Amino acid sequence: QEECQNYIRVLLVGGNHLFTCGTNAFTPICTNRTLSNLTEIHDQISGMARCPYSPQHNSTALLTSSGELYAATAMDFPGRDPAIYRSLGALPPLRTAQYNSKWLNEPNFVSSYDIGNFTYFFFRENAVEHDCGKTVFSRAARVCKNDIGGKFVLEDTWTTFMKARLNCSRPGEIPFYYNELQSTFFLPELDLIYGIFTTNVNSIAASAVCVFNLSAVTQAFNGPFKYQENSRSAWLPYPNPNPNFQCGTMDQGLYVNLTERNLQDAQKFFLMHEVIQPVIPIPYFMEDNSRFSHVVVDVVQGRDMLFHIIYLATDYGTIKKVLGPMNQTSSSCLLEEIELLPKSQREPIRSLQILHSQSVLFVGLQEHVVKVPLKRCLFYKTYSACIGSQDPYCGWDMVMKKCTTLEESLSMSQWEQSITVCPMRNLTVDGHFGTWSQWKPCSHTDGASVGSCLCRTRVCDSPAPQCGGWLCEGPTMEIANCSRNGGWTPWTSWSPCSTTCGIGFQVRQRSCSNPTPRHGGRVCVGQNREERRVIFFLLYCNEHLLCPPHVFWTGWGPWERCTAQCGGGIQARRRTCENGPDCPGCSVEYQPCNTNACPELKKTTPWTPWTPVNISDNGGHYEQRFRYTCKARLPDPNLLEVGRQRIEMRYCSSDGTSGCLTDG
């Protein structure tokens, strides 16, 4: 999401217009605005081939006086198609050969300049001519501004593209190379190009400043080419068919208006054999364990000569002010290191620009811009400090008795300056705190009373600041475990009345938490709860509302008679609701009673009369009679019902001998 914003990558002034391009969340766009009113947009065009898609891709661009835009950037979304591309203006669009690593091999573009007949581009790339492993070389490339491309061959492609290696190294039997170009600065009045070179990010950090004369650049481009016949061949020098090529064009014929370069040569020959050498064999300035990111240069008129002041942005957020060598044999001097922000707030420098007309630096940071004056002579309060600073901007005015610039002095004859040696450095010492002392009891005032704490201190003496060094940042005392007396919070509002009629009470509360007592502090004195009795008709709560009669149950009456004497029955008791019909609960309550088993009762019926049943052949007959016996566990014998039947039978003979004449 961080990259899906609109990062401004092209910002160019052309006449009274400002041409801008931004990544626009990986959909680059460009606009033309009026300088006097930046909100006024004249036109908007696609940013493809003019601005990178991603803010992580390096690019550079320039706008010529005739309106052509030269951009070195990635042409596609993933950044696999880098190109040097011309658009806008009256000339046809041209680009470097597509997907040809011999032209451009994963380049990181740094800067571009419009110089004479050529447009120059500075970048670093994987060295295609390096046969042993992978390494990065820094390059200078150029194209003719009047190039219109080829005909039949190299159509829409540069025919004048050439590139040469930039050499920035520490000389020796085995030179130490600073291979990766990071930033350049061009001094057109002196035809000098300052460059920052560093080691690879996977190597030991080291940086150097090398300076190249435009004549050395031209010499390399006028020399032989480096050419490889095929992928199995070695890179060998090849004579330059146009050794002093200055973008001349054909006057007539099939290739009229095309440049003098042979198109077949332009396809093969673009890498120069000779390396662009710096002005002096050793770098102007070197520093180990550090990486520089940006460079600008100011040319200062001293009392007796011109001085070159180099400003270098470091990767940790400071600016080194360096005095360039005064001749071929002298070395550069580190004059001072400018702290933009306190050490705890340092951040990487995003851009560095110099405005010579106002003698100021503009330093771009993540969220703001810092303006730094170049002339800071008022910092030197004494003669020795002024002269000893070896600052070309400053000298001692013998009349005004203060350190001034040459412009501020009334006369050069009374303005003294002596720049002969590098200034004494490391006199400025930034302060650092010593270790904390042991925790000790200390007192503090808490309201009207005195409490106790634990305190410890430290002193800015390891080392103490000297000669304008930074003071220590941070507290000199730490306090902990302070006793704190408790304090009451404000009373809450009175609560609603506890009753809705009659006499009730209200409550309000507070707590001992404003603050809470701690570390032996005094607790709050007093009550945390208050009540007040209220007669509502006096305080207008339910005014004149009398409480209704109290509705209640009477006590339970005696248990009524059990519904059974044995075998289990129920009995009830009752109560009544006084002063209303709406008492909660039941008016009758039941319980079991006489749950003991009833005794067993037995009842037998009398015998029935005898009745004949059968008559036998001999004249005799049978008679029978009945009776019933019932038994059960009941409280009342009358509740018995008839049970099983008992039968008796007798035989009666015809002669009457069997006794059937009676009922017994």
From TrEMBL:
Major localisation: membrane
Bilayer topology: Single-pass membrane protein
Gene3D superfamilies registered for this protein in UniProt: ligand-binding face of the semaphorins, domain 2 (3.30.1680.10), Thrombospondin type-1 (TSP1) repeat (2.20.100.10), YVTN repeat-like/Quinoprotein amine dehydrogenase (2.130.10.10)
Keywords of the record: Developmental protein, Differentiation, Disulfide bond, Glycoprotein, Membrane, Neurogenesis, Repeat, Secreted, Signal, Transmembrane, Transmembrane helix
Any one Gene Ontology molecular-function term assigned to this protein's record: chemorepellent activity
Ranges where the Sema domain occurs: 1-374
Keyword Glycoprotein (UniProt): yes
Subcellular location: Membrane; Secreted
GO cellular component, one term: extracellular region
GO biological process, any: positive regulation of cell migration
PANTHER family, sorted: SEMAPHORIN, SEMAPHORIN-5A
UniProt name for this protein: Semaphorin-2A
Source organism: Steatornis caripensis (Oilbird)
Gene that this sequence comes from: Sema5a_0
